[in-house]
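stage 2 :: seqdesign
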C-alpha cells in the first residue's frame, strides 16, 4: 500500500546540484532519463549513486508517473542489512520510502522514489555520504602512484 506523498522534496536537478556541490570529486554521466555518479572521471565506474526518471530500464517503480524518480545508493552490507535487509516483499512503486533496489539489492544498493524534503535531509544525505565515502576510500586504496622516478634510479 502506498503512503501519501504530501511533502515536496528536491527534484533530480536539485539532487544533482547537491551531490556535485557537496562532493567536488563526483563525476556525473547523464543519459536519457538517468544520471550516474562516480569518483572516476576516466572510467565513470563504479557508481556510488544514480538518479533515474525514466521507465526505459525500470518496469517496477512506475517512474512514468509525473514527478516520480528514483535515487539509488550503494551502501555497506551492514548499513543495507540494518536499513532494508528485513523487507521481504517491497512495493517498489512506493514513494518516499527507503527500499532494497529492485535490481541491485544483492550488491547492497538501496532505492527511494521521490524523497520528501525531510527524508532527503534525514535519510538520503547521510546515506549519500556513506556511498560516496566508501567508493572514494576504495579508489584511494587501489590508487598506485607511480613510484618509479628518474631521480630514484640515479646511481652514485
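stage 2 :: out
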Amino acid at each position: 500500500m502506498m503512503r501519501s506523498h504530501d511533502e515536496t522534496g528536491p527534484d533530480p536537478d536539485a539532487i544533482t546540484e547537491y551531490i556535485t556541490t557537496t562532493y567536488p570529486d563526483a563525476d556525473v554521466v547523464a543519459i536519457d532519463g538517468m544520471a550516474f555518479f562516480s569518483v572516476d572521471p576516466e572510467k565513470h565506474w563504479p557508481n556510488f549513486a544514480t538518479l533515474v526518471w525514466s521507465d526505459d530500464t525500470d518496469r517496477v517503480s512506475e517512474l512514468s508517473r509525473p514527478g516520480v524518480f528514483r535515487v539509488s545508493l550503494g551502501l555497506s552490507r551492514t548499513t543495507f542489512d540494518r536499513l532494508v535487509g528485513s523487507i521481504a516483499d517491497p512495493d517498489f512503486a512506493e514513494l518516499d520510502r527507503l527500499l532494497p533496489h529492485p535490481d541491485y539489492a544483492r550488491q547492497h544498493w538501496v532505492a527511494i522514489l521521490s524523497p520528501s524534503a525531510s527524508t532527503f535531509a534525514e535519510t538520503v544525505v547521510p546515506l549519500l555520504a556513506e556511498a560516496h565515502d566508501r567508493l572514494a576510500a576504495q579508489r584511494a586504496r587501489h590508487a598506485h602512484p607511480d613510484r618509479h622516478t628518474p631521480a630514484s634510479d640515479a646511481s652514485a
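stage 3 :: structure notes
- The longest strand covers residues 47-52.
- The chain has a mean pLDDT of 88.
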